[in-house]
Amino acid sequence: MGEFPTVTDVARVAGVSRQTVSNVMNTPGIVKADTRARVEAAITALGYRPHASARRLRTRRSSTIGIRLDPMIDGISGSVLDRFLHALTEQADARGLRVLLFTATSPEDEIDQFRRLNDGADVDGFVLTSTTADDPRTAWLLEHDIAFVTFGRPWQENDFTDPSHLWVDVDGHAGLYAATRAQQDAGARRIAYIGWPSPSGTGDDRRRGWHEAMLERGDVSAEELARLEVITTDGVDQGAAAMRQLARTAGGIDAVLCASDALALGAMIANPARVSVTGYDNTPIAAAIGLSSVDQPVDEVAAGVLELLTGEFEGQVSHAPDSASPRYRMVTPRLVTRQFEAIPRDSVPANALVDEVSR
């Protein structure tokens, strides 16, 4: 045990879960009397005192939410989080809340920022983005009883309804399923997919939508379906290379779906046959060049994040495992269909096109 006892220490001594300890402190009426007595005895014996953040959540002293400002990557990949940040800031202001931005170079650095901002009573809670399986940031925040909501679900298998983890996410499976169905309804049979390496929670979720829709329709065999898929890292050049690979090995394709607009832009550049291409994220580049894309409704995501976080501030979110209190939001994306002409590879360098459209 460290210098100061934590919720985990109390839970260990009392023989209960961390969530039960939290329930005893915040909603004692839902805890059985004998269990509550054990937890209270452990709190007294250890000299545990709730963190200053927990007290601030009840008083809303700072009315400030902290969120990391992601580093600028390129004109495509970062646009969704940029749009989310704008939506979150505007909607928070309408609720009388402020958004405090900070930078971090790694999850460990972000945790250091959590500690600094929490110790200084600068924020009431945090919004996290870019979640991963076994995310050390969420584990630290849970350990220290600090309020947070993530844009992105917990990706551990069968852990999506963890009552202590509040989250909002976009249903990538539904988005790619709808995009595949739209191509099938338009007459396409051999629909290829360019996606990211697994494991990738977001990427695997999107791939499942395409894969399930293709298997359900049964237009191609499982062996043929494997040839219609190319896995690569994200980027315009990678998308172009994947499209050329499909032209060599897929035996003819009617349409291509991509895990991102960056991959889709590359596929359009290497697409002399003018096969229909659909991206994901509906970035400004997609709108500018006429690329069909799956749109992530970040306004709805921001609204869900703030609803859960302010509900946590006001004690309206129960963390009891059997509670009907909403603890997450799954937002359905929408397919935006556009007409396009394939971009000749030798007409303009891919990077120059990205730079120009991103301005």
UniProtKB/TrEMBL annotation:
Q: Where are the transmembrane segments?
A: none
Which SUPFAM superfamilies does the record cross-reference, listed alphabetically?
Answer: lambda repressor-like DNA-binding domains, Periplasmic binding protein-like I
Query: Where's the HTH lacI-type domain?
Result: 5-59
Q: Does the keyword DNA-binding apply?
A: yes
Supply the InterPro entries for this chain: HTH_LacI, LacI/GalR-like_sensor, Lambda_DNA-bd_dom_sf, Peripla_BP_I
User: Keywords for this entry?
Assistant: DNA-binding, Transcription, Transcription regulation
Q: Which PROSITE patterns match?
A: HTH_LACI_1, HTH_LACI_2
CDD domains reported in the protein's UniProt record: HTH_LacI
- The name this protein goes by in its record: LacI family transcriptional regulator
